[in-house]
Write a structure and sequence with these properties.
Blueprint (H helix, E strand, L loop, with lengths): L1 H9 L9 E9 L2 E8 L4 E2 L6 E2 L2 E14 L2 E13 L9 E3 L14 H13 L2 H10 L4
Parallel strand pairs: 2-6
Antiparallel strand pairs: 1-2, 3-4, 5-6, 6-7
Helix pairs in contact: 2-3
Bound molecules: zinc ion.
Zinc ion binds next to loops.
């Protein structure tokens, strides 16, 4: 429990991403679930690049990160949907992508995705299917 308490307070579980803080950490069976939220006050619109802090809504999204030992690690990210305030921009609303943590339509963090690609390059499809779960990746 001390380990989990340290994760909650220092937020150091995600050293590759300095724009989030850890809200909660729970371990259940062979899965570590980490709830995170973005700390950025403003986010640039992906179309016009004008920064905005106008949050329209939020939702939760789960992405798989690299395993920690024999544990599968899932990040539950509170994603903010912003409203672009630039009147000439065709994009009115957009979801925040957190650098090094989320990418559009991806269910893994970029580093977990990179690991899967490395496995796929190294092994055949059938070997990767068997090896992935052993390494905590689906
Ligand atoms: Zn815009």
């Amino acid at each position: 429990m001390l380990y989990i308490d340290r994760l909650r307070t220092c937020g150091s579980y995600i050293p590759h991403c300095d724009s989030v803080h850890v809200v909660d950490v729970r371990i259940q069976e062979a899965t570590i679930t980490v709830w995170v939220e973005s700390t950025r006050a403003q986010v640039p619109c992906p179309v016009c690049s004008v920064p905005t802090g106008s949050v329209h809504c939020t939702y939760r999204r789960t992405v798989q990160d690299l395993p920690s030992g024999s544990y599968v690690v899932n990040l539950v990210v509170t994603v903010r949907c912003f409203q672009c305030r630039n009147d000439s921009c065709p994009r009115k609303f957009f979801s925040e992508q957190i650098p090094n943590l989320t990418a559009r339509y991806q269910r893994r963090t970029p580093r977990a995705d990179q690991r899967v690609v490395e496995l796929a390059i190294e092994y055949t499809d059938q070997g990767c299917e068997r090896l992935g779960p052993l390494l905590g990746l689906r």
